Amino acid sequence: MDPGSKAFIPLAEEYGKAGMWDEAAGVLEDGLKASPNFIIAMVALGRVYEQLNQPAKAIAILEEAIKLSPENFRAHRILAKIYMSQGVKEAGLRSCGVILAANPQDVEVLSLRATLEALAVPAPAELAPPQPVIESVQPASESAVTMEKVEEPRYVDIMQRDRPEAATDSATITPEKKSATVIQLEQWLSLIRDRRLDRTASTNNNP
Questions:
Q1: Which of 62, 141, 162, 167 allows an S-S link to 156, with CB 3.0 to 4.6 Å?
Q2: Highest mean predicted confidence (pLDDT) among 21-25, 122-126, 142-146, 179-183
């Protein structure tokens, strides 16, 4: 097997189907270290970050992806959704425009565009409302309590858009139960890493 194989993509997909988004993110991040600028992996990682409710990370990797591939419709679709949820009008409309230029009848993107167009552009004062000057410092314990109450929402699996029942299936699978496919792919990747290490060691021993 080619040591430079991009077999980590199917493994990340299997993790996504099982709702194991943290594991999927780890696989894709490691894969991109070995294969930087691999567009498919970059877009997949953007979708995983979206599922993990990490919009800043998702936007960063997806914006990088469309710099390398300006007409990557999947990346633009995810960006449009994230920008809509964040209330970022202009960037969201830009991504919608790229998709609609190729497919003016895309119902989902038309709906996204309509929602974005309805967003009011906030004035600078509304973007960052002035806070009253408070001389006393807020106790650290209160900040800790506030942070503990924040929970990141998890979403159903969207990695397979064409399967209507995919969301129901992924919701019922617990992270502890790994499918045979996941186990096989993990073993596959382990073999790739071992061979890569062997090749590196051989090169170092034979200058």
A1: 167
A2: 21-25
